Amino acid sequence: SLLVMPYLRPYDNPEFNVVADVVDFAMQTLKVGYHSRRRKEKRIEQPQGLTFMHQHRIAHRLWHITISTSRPMILTIARDIAPTNIMMDGTPLYPEGFHPVRIHQAEDAIYDAHPLPRIDHPVTYYYIDFGLSVRFAEGAPSLVVGKVGQRTDVPEMSSTVPYDAFKADVYALGDIFDRDLEQVDRSVLRS
User: Fold this and answer.
1) Which of 132, 155, 167, 177 is 20 to 30 A from 147 (CA-CA)?
2) Tens digits of per-residue pLDDT, 61-84?
3) Would you say the pTM of this structure is higher than 0.85?
4) How far, in Å, CA of 90 to CA of 151, rounded?
């Protein structure tokens, strides 16, 4: 199989400029679809984000081992919805392109690349790194145990008490909003 995707860049590069950029990011990473008033054309959104993954019973990056006892349990080895696993297609912001390694420079790697504002040129965000994700069978519980991964501070995470993998995904994304975007919101609101 072959998968062709746009060349992606970090979701926060370039930085968010206005609150609407942050809201767009949050809506795309969470929702089934929405209509943004700032888009010039009416766009029919495809299901996306955590809602889409969870509707299809997929937990992001979950390496698991099924333990056969009187009742099956899944042991979590790693889980990580993290900033490095959310990317964006920057093509609308860089119509002339950008260098694949030196992403702040133009394709020729000589001149600086100057992005257009997201408010006028909306981007699409993608979850990546599904190599270790899991799809739970329909009707099967999404309970896991384990306290290893990029985000180990999920309150219900336990090495002994099962917790819901989907709720842990939501917490991890909320943690990104809290840690990475709260500071952006404050600086944008001050300007």
Assistant:
1) 177
2) 544 444 445 555 544 444 568 888
3) no
4) 27
